[in-house]
Amino acid sequence: MLIPIILSAAFLLSSSRCRIPTPWLAPVTTSRTRWPDTSPKVVWLARLNAEARDILECARIPPNVGFAQAALESGFGSRMATNPWGVRGAGDAGSQFISTTEYFEAGTATALSNQKFAKYTSLGAAAKGYVAFCNGKSYRPGHAFVEVDPGRWLLWLWGMGYATAPNYAVTVQDVSIRVALQLDDAALAIPWSAWHEDVAHKLSKVAAGAVRRNLTAKLLAPPMS
After folding, report:
1. What is the pLDDT of residue 81?
2. What mean pLDDT value characterizes the chain?
3. Most exposed: 49, 106, 147, 184, by fewest CB within 10 Å?
4. Among the residues of 76-122, which ranges form H helices?
5. Beta-carbon contacts of residue 100 (< 8 Å; ≥ 6 apart)
């Protein structure tokens, strides 16, 4: 039988020395059952939390978004375990060549082989590579959302080209609930509303690339500094 579990951010505090202020969150209610602590996926999540959380928070990158992306991209550490964010190029351990799937037209999958992805010696090194990626020119304007609306930051990342799958942002948010449940930390669940859902729906209907980037900029224009 599935037992509802209520996670409340009010009393769950991070020990991170660079903790990002967490916006008020409504309790997250889920009827999902926890995986056993000995599960390889849970062991990997614990490693991710231990090795990468401080790095993300000190760089002002929300762990609730970063951890959910890493879990989704890597299948909770079952593939590309030390490059869970799927950063392309080269890492501190060189590169690796794998196949991947991209969605250059809305809803149409294209298989690509022999794609160059970074290889890292640890999850901490991978986190630094992810941070560098998030600081790229296209993504920097979205940093205005980090402390007030991580869901908006996720939409900006996706819309500006981090991923091409049409349902990427919605899926990442759903995965964040699983991550929060497993690590017993409600702050790791990405806040999500009908507004986020509506923006995600609109972005999913256009092709990845310039069209989606332009619509993202229109729907999610950062506040003027």
Report:
1. 81
2. 86
3. 184
4. none
5. 86, 111, 112, 115
* Structural domain count, the chain: 1
Rounded-to-integer distance, Cα 82 and Cα 80, Å: 6
Q: Report yes or no on 8 lying in a domain.
A: no
- pLDDT at position 32, please? 84
**Per-residue pLDDT for 12 more than 60?**
no
Cα-based distances in Å from 141 to 72, 83, 122: 24, 25, 29
List CB contacts of 54: < 8 A, sequence separation 6 or more: 16, 17, 18
Note down the domain range covering 35: 19-79+123-219
Contact 30, 68 (CB under 8 A): no
2 touches 27 (CB < 8 A): no
Q: Name the token pair of 182.
A: 């497993």
Say if pTM beats, i.e. exceeds, 0.70.
yes
Q: Can you tell me which residue has the tokens 């256009």?
A: 206
Nearest to 207 by CA among 106, 87, 84: 106
Within-domain flag for 152 = yes
Instruction: Evaluate whether residue 192 is within a structural domain.
Output: yes
Encoded tokens for 183: 């690590």
Q: Are 45 and 179 in contact (CB under 8 A)?
A: yes
Q: Is residue 118 part of a domain?
A: no
Which letter does DSSP use for residue 97 in this model?
E
The three-state (H, E, C) secondary structure of 196-214, written as one string: HHHHHHHHHCCCCCHHHHH
Confidence of residue 16 (pLDDT cuts 50, 70, 90): low
Decide: 71 and 46 in contact? Cβ < 8 Å.
Answer: no
Q: What is the mean pLDDT of residues 112-136?
A: 92
